[in-house]
Write a structure and sequence with these properties.
Blueprint (H helix, E strand, L loop, with lengths): L8 E5 L4 H10 L7 H4 L2 H4 L2 E7 L14 H4 L2 E10 L4 E9 L8 H16 L8 E4 L6 H7 L19
Parallel strand pairs: 4-5
Antiparallel strand pairs: 1-2, 2-3, 3-4
Length: 164
C-alpha cells in the first residue's frame, strides 16, 4: 500500500489537465513537452495518478478575504504507466514540484502505480515486467522500491527523432 500522505495532500487516479501536466514536467526538471505531445496521454496510457495539495485555511484571513489561489487545489505530483496491460509496463512522467519534494509524494505516486499493476495485471505466465528510466534524482526512490539496474544484461537505448 502507498504510504499515508501529509495533511492537505490527496491522491487521485487519472491524469492532470494538459496545462498542469506541462507545468509539472518543466518545473520538476523533466524535458518540456508541447500541448500536442501531451494531448494523447489520457487515451494512450494504461493508468495514471496525481496528487493535489489544498493549503490549510489561514487563521489570519476571513474566508471572504482568502484569494482564489489559497482556496484551490494545486496539482503537485504525477506519474503514469504506459504498456500493453498484459505483461509489459513502463513507468513514466514521475514528477513532483520542487516546493513539494521530500514529503513522500514521489513514493506515494510510485506506490499507487505499482499497486495498480499488482491489482490489474494478469496473474498467469512469468508475471509483469515493469521498467522505467531512472534520472539521477529518482534513483534512490526506485532502489528503495525494489528496482534494480538491468546492465550488463540489458541496456536502455533511445532513438532521438528531432524532426528537423
Amino acid at each position: 500500500p502507498s504510504p499515508a500522505l501529509l495533511p492537505g495532500y490527496t491522491l487521485h487516479s487519472g491524469y492532470p489537465p494538459i496545462p498542469d501536466y506541462l507545468h509539472l514536467r518543466a518545473a520538476s526538471g523533466l524535458t518540456p513537452k508541447t500541448p500536442a505531445q501531451a494531448e494523447p496521454i489520457a487515451r494512450n496510457s494504461w493508468y495514471g495518478c496525481y496528487i493535489t495539495f489544498t493549503p490549510p485555511p489561514n487563521p489570519n484571513k476571513t474566508t471572504t478575504a482568502a484569494t482564489k489561489a489559497e482556496k484551490e487545489d494545486t496539482i503537485v505530483a504525477m506519474g503514469r504507466i504506459i504498456g500493453d496491460g498484459g505483461w509489459y509496463f513502463h513507468i513514466v512522467d514521475m514528477a513532483v514540484l520542487p516546493t513539494h519534494q521530500r514529503k513522500g509524494l514521489g513514493g506515494a505516486v510510485l506506490g499507487r502505480l505499482l499497486a495498480h499493476i499488482r491489482e490489474e495485471a494478469p496473474r498467469d505466465g512469468d508475471g509483469a515486467y515493469v521498467t522505467l528510466f531512472a534520472d539521477a534524482p529518482g534513483r534512490a526512490l526506485y532502489a528503495r522500491t525494489g528496482f534494480v539496474e538491468t546492465t550488463p544484461g540489458q541496456l536502455g537505448m533511445m532513438l532521438p527523432m528531432g524532426w528537423e
